[in-house]
């Protein structure tokens, strides 16, 4: 436990924290920021891990990151190392990345390729389905290999997005409807024929909810994001009550072209707080993609796309992802909590598989705007956290016109925690 955790610790036990968390969420006014312990108390962070991150469906990566048998990526969901690997039959599976001998982490890299999974400690060897193949002769005759396969996590993919759930029973709800929509809306991108062009892993000293809250509003954009605002229109979706007539006209003109080309764009949302949401939003007039000048990011358009002006299809998946899918590249964002006041924000840029680096695209140009934007958001999140840690912090009001996305997020968070805590 570091000094910061100690200074913000209010509860002696996890049980007290669970009880108080329920009370705080029950009593909270919907249009106010949360009480400080929900952003900085280590026991409450543990409740977030148990009730959200170890239960809910989480976005982990894209199927095109692991195109061939034995390709894998790893993620750390709090203290839980997880491995996502492509099997010989083409399926994508998730396992707890912990050996059934004495528990060592098996894959130690962010990504890689293996024939079998070999634990680095005593070389127990598992196949791509997680079956234990080999444990040497040292385990004796009575050792039952079939009882020591890797533990599976739930894993689903749609439209190239991979989700895992560490729950014993995967959450149901309307997740499958969202996945069907993802399949439909991502079809033009032909994700299996894309490749990773750039990746950033940004460490942020802020609670994961502050990272999400920051992403859910553009009230801060004018003050902080000059590069992003070269191309982004700040309206949240096509029904945004603030959107002026010239935006609606611009949208109507673009949407007519998208309809003629069979590019899905209509706003769809699922779950409390519009937890899963897809909408294609126009970018500024004359802009192709979110580059520094709005010009192309990659000479090859994605999949079967013909029109370079597809705006950005925004995909939201609470608790941990937002995304911008454009005509010549797409960008996915993933948030994973580390501790009460630390998070990891991973950003990945994808282009057409046949695009050639240095010829069709320059990774530096591709990532310039969002590298700058992420860093600006990191500073905002860290300053927000520092102020919340003060004894002078008191929850403050959200603007219902500019921060309704934050209110939606907290509605989903609050409903989910309360539902899980009352089970
Ligand atoms: O563009 C995004 O992903 C979000 C939405 C609005 C502000 N923020 C930068
Ligand atoms: Fe994995 Fe011993 S801990 S082989
Ligand atoms: Fe921002």
Question: Summarize this, please?
Answer:
This protein has 423 residues and is an alpha+beta fold. Helix content is 28%, strand content 23%. It folds into 2 domains: 288 residues, Alpha-Beta Complex (Naphthalene 1,2-dioxygenase Alpha Subunit, Chain A, domain 1); 106 residues, 3-layer Sandwich (Rieske Iron-sulfur Protein), CATH 2.102.10.10.
Question: Would you kindly provide a written description of the structure presented here, covering whatever features stand out?
Answer:
It is an enzyme of class 1 (oxidoreductase). InterPro entries: Rieske_2Fe-2S, Rieske_2Fe-2S_sf, Ring_hydroxy_dOase_asu_C_dom, Rng_hydr_dOase-A. This is Aromatic ring-hydroxylating dioxygenase subunit alpha. This protein has 423 residues and is an alpha+beta fold. It folds into 2 domains: 1-56 and 192-423, Naphthalene 1,2-dioxygenase Alpha Subunit, Chain A, domain 1; 60-165, 3-layer Sandwich (Rieske Iron-sulfur Protein), CATH 2.102.10.10. It is 28% helix and 23% strand. The protein has a 7-stranded antiparallel sheet. A 7-stranded antiparallel sheet has the order 11-17-16-15-14-13-12, with helices on both faces. It has a 3-stranded antiparallel sheet with strand order 6-7-8, with no helix packed on it. It is globular. It binds 1-methyl-L-proline, FE2/S2 (inorganic) cluster and fe (iii) ion. Residues 215, 218, 221, 232, 322 line the site of 1-methyl-L-proline (3BY).
């Amino acid at each position: 436990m570091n000094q910061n955790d100690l200074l913000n610790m209010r509860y002696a036990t996890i049980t007290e924290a669970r009880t108080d968390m329920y009370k705080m969420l029950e009593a909270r006014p919907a249009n106010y920021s949360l009480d400080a312990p929900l952003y900085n108390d280590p026991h409450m962070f543990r409740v977030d891990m148990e009730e959200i991150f170890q239960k809910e469906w989480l976005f982990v990566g894209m199927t095109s990151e692991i195109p061939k048998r034995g390709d894998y990526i790893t993620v750390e969901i709090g203290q839980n190392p997880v491995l996502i690997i492509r099997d010989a039959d083409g399926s994508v599976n998730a396992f707890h990345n912990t050996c059934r001998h004495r528990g060592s982490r098996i894959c130690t890299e962010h990504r890689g390729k293996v024939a079998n999974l070999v634990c680095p400690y005593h070389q127990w060897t598992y196949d791509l389905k997680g079956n234990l193949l080999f444990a040497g002769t040292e385990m004796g005759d009575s050792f039952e290999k079939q009882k020591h396969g890797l533990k599976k996590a739930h894993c689903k993919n749609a439209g190239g997005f991979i989700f895992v759930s560490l729950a014993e029973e995967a959450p149901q709800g309307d997740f499958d409807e969202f996945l069907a929509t993802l399949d439909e809306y991502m079809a033009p991108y032909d994700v299996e024929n894309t490749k990773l062009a750039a990746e950033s892993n940004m460490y942020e000293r802020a609670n994961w909810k502050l990272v999400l809250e920051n992403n859910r509003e553009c009230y801060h954009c004018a003050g902080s994001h000059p590069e992003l605002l070269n191309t982004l229109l700040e309206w949240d979706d096509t029904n945004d009550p603030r959107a002026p007539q010239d935006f609606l006209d611009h949208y109507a003109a673009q949407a007519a072209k998208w309809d003629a080309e069979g590019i899905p764009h209509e706003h769809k949302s699922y779950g409390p707080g519009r937890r899963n949401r897809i909408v294609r939003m126009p970018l500024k007039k004359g802009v192709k993609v979110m580059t520094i000048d709005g010009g192309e990011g990659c000479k090859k358009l994605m999949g079967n796309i013909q029109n370079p002006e597809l705006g950005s299809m925004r995909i939201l998946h609470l608790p941990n992802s937002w995304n911008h899918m454009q005509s010549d590249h797409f960008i996915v964002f993933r948030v994973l909590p580390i501790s009460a006041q630390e998070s990891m924000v991973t950003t990945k840029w994808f282009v057409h598989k046949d695009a050639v680096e240095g010829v069709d695209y320059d990774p530096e140009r591709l990532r310039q705007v969002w590298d700058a934007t992420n860093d600006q958001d990191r500073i905002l999140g860290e300053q927000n956290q520092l102020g919340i840690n003060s004894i002078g912090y008191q929850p403050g009001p959200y603007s219902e016109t500019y921060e309704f996305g934050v209110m939606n997020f907290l509605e989903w968070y609050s409903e989910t925690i309360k539902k899980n805590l009352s089970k």
